[in-house]
Amino acid sequence: MNEADTDSKRLAHDRGGWSLASMAIGDVSYALWHRSHSLGFIAHADLGDRVLAAWGTCDLPPVLHHVQLVELPS
User: Fold this and answer.
1) In this predicted structure, what is the pLDDT of residue 41?
2) Domain ranges, residue 41
3) Which terminus of the chain has a smaller tally of CB atoms within 10 A, N or C?
4) Is 27 part of a structural domain of the chain?
5) Residue 51: its pLDDT value, please?
6) What are the tens digits of pLDDT across the range 11-32?
7) Does the structure show a pLDDT above 90 at 6?
């Protein structure tokens, strides 16, 4: 846990290591920040009242460039 915490903080603070891509939700474009790391990719986007976080064991998947928000029932 300590190693994962240290690694996540290092990646978050290394702003120069992040790339910027466009992500569309409906007709609105958002900034999708992403980067590769030893296990795959991590990505995040600030959507105003929501935040998107994504990660996986591959390269950044093309599907993240156009997504759809779905409201889940509470």
Assistant:
1) 93
2) 2-61
3) C
4) yes
5) 92
6) 888 888 899 999 999 899 999 9
7) no
Tell me if 18 sits within 8 A of 34, measured CB to CB. Answer: yes
CA distance 21 to 36: 13
**Is 68 part of a structural domain of the chain?**
no
What does each C-alpha distance from 61 to 5, 20, 49 come to in angstroms?
25, 14, 24
Q: What does the block give as tokens for 21?
A: 């891509």
Distance CA 53, CA 42 (A): 8
Residue 74 in any domain: the answer is no
Q: Smallest Cα–Cα separation from 20: which of 12, 7, 30?
A: 30
Can you read off the two tokens belonging to residue 10?
């290092």
Given a cut of 90, whether residue 74 has pLDDT beyond it is: no
3-state secondary structure of 68: coil
User: Domain total for the chain?
Assistant: 1
Categorize the per-residue pLDDT at 54 as very low, low, confident or very high, splitting at 50, 70 and 90: very high
In three-state secondary structure terms, 14 is coil
